[in-house]
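Pipeline run #58 for the internal structure catalog. This entry was flagged by the ingest filter as a single-chain record with no existing model, so it goes straight to prediction. Upstream metadata was stripped on purpose; only the residue string is passed forward. Reviewer on rotation: M.T. Logging verbosity set to normal.
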Amino acid sequence: MLLSENRNTKFKKLRNMRRAYLEQKALVSQLKKDEDGAIIVLTLLLLISMLIVGGMAVDFMRFESERTKLQSVSDRAVLAAASLDQNRDAAEVITEFFETAGYGDAIVGTPFIDKTDSGATVRVDSQIDMSTFYLRLAGIDTLSAPAAATAIQGTGKVEVSLVLDISGSMGNNVTGTITNADGSQSTVTRTRMWFLQRAASQFIDDLLLPEYEDRISINLINYSQHVSVGDDLYRALRTTPDSISAIGEAGSSFSEFDPAVGYAVYEEPEKDENGDPIYYDEDGNATSVAPDPLAWADGEDVFTNPSRCVDFLNSEFNTLTFDTSRTYQQVEYFRANSWYVCPSRDVEGIVLLSQDADLLKGRINALQPTQNTSIHMGLKWGVSLLDPSMRDLLGGISAIDPAFRGSRPANYNAGDTVKYLILMTDGVNVASTRVDNNYYDTYEWRTTWADYSMNYWRSNYSSITGRPSSTRPSTGAITNPTASAGTYNTWMAQLCNLAKPHYTIYTVTMGAENTHMTNCASQPSFAFRTSMSNNPGEPGMDDIFRSISEQITALRLSL
């Protein structure tokens, strides 16, 4: 009986143990399959990383805020210290700005101060160390916020090409507002040329102040259908013969004929100690008397083309570089109507690298409207005379101011020289008509065109056909159109895009809006326009040119 009970008790224990084992096994199996709460472990790990990253963002935001504040203080300090109207010591002004802002210990080293009566350059370097909140978890206890600022008052070395429209429409009367000497304004009716001359002359005075002597050089370029380069530049170029005799001999009007090359080659004459040219007679003896320029004609009648305009190749409107090695074709001397296609008066020629205010203003005030509008031609000469490729050529022209001859145009990477182009027009590009080269290759043809305009032949002999003669040319056979206005606009856009990285371009449009001018400007705010109709809020020519001169010479922050 007792044995049976012991056996039952033992059996019951074994059964309970087995049941417990099976239950535990089932529980373990269930736990293996149960995924509840698994993400908690990953979350705990990521939470620490998120706190560090979020804290870094907070620290960096604090850093950028402090850096911006420090930069603002630096900019305001140097601008105040560099102003020529500032009578206090520049170093004291800078220190006061930093101390007032709570950055008294931020100035690094000694501020650079170069201040004279004519200009000032002030630079300050600063830095603050900011303690971090969260980046210290990554081992970064502080962040250093640096700031540097430079301000310039006045101007350094400046090269300017002032390109002005002298086309026929500049003679039209318009009504506009002018600013008088006392600051008052008046409404007057004058020609567009009158408004331009007034504003451009004041622009010259605003730039060529005595304190800027030997710093600012100005190229004055006037354009209509073409650009007259003037005697000095024309003679420095390689050009086609400008003279022809009645028996067909070609030569140059400004040098002796050289039969070895078929026409005269210009050479700058030697100079004596006073700078006067030295010539030589037939025996090789020095003389101050220039040789007869037309001696090569052997007594024959000679026609000399007085045009000082030259043609460019189409490809040359896609480069800033000026080719000083090639021979340039002289533009023919003829009138389409009452005006010559190449401005024919000496005062219309280019003025090169000048700081002579009286000369420049005298030329501007002597301008007269003439012929069609070829903005691309004025632009081409404007950019060329700022391009370093012209330096050697211009260096050989003795009439250029010695302060600039041989050193300008400066290289583009010359950090102390800034180049400006001011391009002005009152219209849009217009296709023009030219004499075909086949009808400008003899003495007879050249004298014919010099005596009578194209319109004269069209009016009197429009129906005549056959072989042209000196008395009855058929203009349908002897004139041909040049490229279209659309092509001119394309060339203009090409030059503007090439120039923008190197020059600051301002455009001034008088009259109807010209999108090609607007697009040419370095930035939209540098494209000025006036309708000359007294529209409210619209600037006058005086205001426009004054704004440009102020920007060139302004108190400004320098990069």
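catalog note: The mean pLDDT is 82.
catalog note: Residues 78 and 151 are 6 Å apart (CA to CA).
status: ready for reviewer M.T.
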